């Protein structure tokens, strides 16, 4: 995983199929998905997150032709926001298109996630990990404007190259808070209830040392969630 990147993965895979699509065509290939917030591995055939609305693929050229899952959403009067993720891999150069699709599906990996804003016909995107690193500034936040979390924000990096940004408005902070709250509800539903989701988190992060091994950009978010669920002091 990236230490600190604001680049959205834009390599699209012509013919790339999700694990459920591969299975439907009779292939024995089973792709294990990894969620973009906590790194929980799961089988998409058994753990279900909603497919992204068609408008995301229609409005966002970087996300077209991809099977997108929604891990969180939030709506304001101006825009609709989504946390999405997908399988990505560079399609092999094979003369047989179907064979290339099978190889791409077999070798594909989950991406790090993208935050999407749909406002009318416009689409804006930002890197999910960087978006989650937002923090309150030392000064009070102004009321506006409505920023896509992390988009065009100034990098604040430490000596190790671990970066975050400061919220530029109350609206930006509220959007990220709304996305996180909706995401936790979706995770609980997908994993069979709040209790089972909490158990999965505890297995993934049994102690503070386990959290320290994940991407530093994500650590503040993960620690915040674990503390709220009583899994971390």
Provide keyphrases for this structure:
233 residues, alpha+beta, four-stranded antiparallel β-sheet, 8 helices, 10 strands, disordered N terminus
Structural write-up:
The protein is α+β, with helices and mostly antiparallel strands and 233 residues long. α5 packs across α6. Helices cover 32% and strands 16% of the residues. The protein has a 4-stranded antiparallel beta sheet with strand order 3-4-7-8. The chain has a two-stranded antiparallel sheet with strand order 1-2. Strands 5-6 form a two-stranded antiparallel sheet. It is built from 8 helices and 10 strands. It has one domain (19-228).
Question: In a few lines, what is going on in this structure?
Answer:
Helix content is 32%, strand content 16%.
Record the SSE blueprint.
Elements: H1 19-24, E1 33-34, E2 41-42, H2 54-59, E3 69-75, E4 80-85, E5 87-88, H3 97-107, E6 109-110, E7 114-119, E8 122-127, H4 128-132, E9 156-157, E10 163-164, H5 170-190, H6 194-204, H7 208-212, H8 219-228
Antiparallel strand pairs: 1-2, 3-4, 4-7, 5-6, 7-8, 9-10
Helix pairs in contact: 5-6
